[in-house]
Amino acid sequence: MTTGTLITVAPTGAESVKTEVPALPVTLDELVLTAKECEALGASVIHVHVRDDEARPTLDPGRLRATVAALRESTDLIVQLSTGGAVTDPEADRLAVLDAAPDMASCTMGTVNFGDEVFLNRWEFVVELHTRMQERGIVPEYEIFDLGHLSALQRLLGRYGLPHGGHVHVDFVMGVPGGMPGTTATLVAAQQMLRELPEGTTFSATGIGRTSLAVLLAALSTGGHLRVGMEDTVTYAKGRQVESNMQLVARAVGFAQLAQRPPLNTAEARVLLGL
Description:
The protein is α/β, with parallel strands linked by helices. It has an eight-stranded parallel barrel with strand order 1-2-5-6-9-10-11-12, surrounded by eight helices. It has one domain: TIM Barrel (Alpha-Beta Barrel). It has helices at 28-41, 61-74, 91-96, 123-136, 148-160, 184-193, 212-221, 245-258, 266-273; strands at residues 7-9, 45-48, 50-51, 57-58, 78-81, 104-108, 112-114, 117-119, 139-144, 169-174, 202-207, 225-228, 235-237, 240-241. β11, α7 (212-221) and β12 (225-228) form a beta-alpha-beta unit.
């Protein structure tokens, strides 16, 4: 399905610091306002990280449940919670994210060097995350930080079956120091490997930092979908800081329309993703 574009906004993440990036939405009110603004522009999915009262990343169960409820009350967006959290979060807390009953949740398909740290995703943990989502009717977005993660996904699906809803959707996270580079050649190689996955598998692509625009253009030209937001870049152009997530969503919408693949609305996105 390449006649439209699924646009996911990832507004916060776990890496940026509010004092350095004042526009970063970290409170529930800020997050809900951002969600409403981005939905109005054309986003249909929101990828959510939450922060505590000190604006630090947290996987607090109460905050996660309150966030899911508030987003559902205020928007029609598909709510996707991150099970990655911060790279230091323990596995038990990451699994407990599913207790907040989101529409979707991320499922990272392997361990990757993450700058100076390690984002650990053991095989047993990945299996547990996948099977719990099957049982609870939560649709996964399989996060791919390196090409080998696609082979791991093929193994996972072959042994444990398709996700809830039957549709496989992956997100190529590109440009992380330690992961696959955010280049057109790498994205094309990753897209070719999708042939080994179930027919109809779709992909989004995320470019981190200075790779964001190159990855956006490459994804559109190869039939992919888009994830943008201040989780992934806080720079709009050289020497120019992002003023809001709306800027990044608006740019993605503009390029999608130029590519004659306008944004999918939330109803169309739910059909695409098996929701």
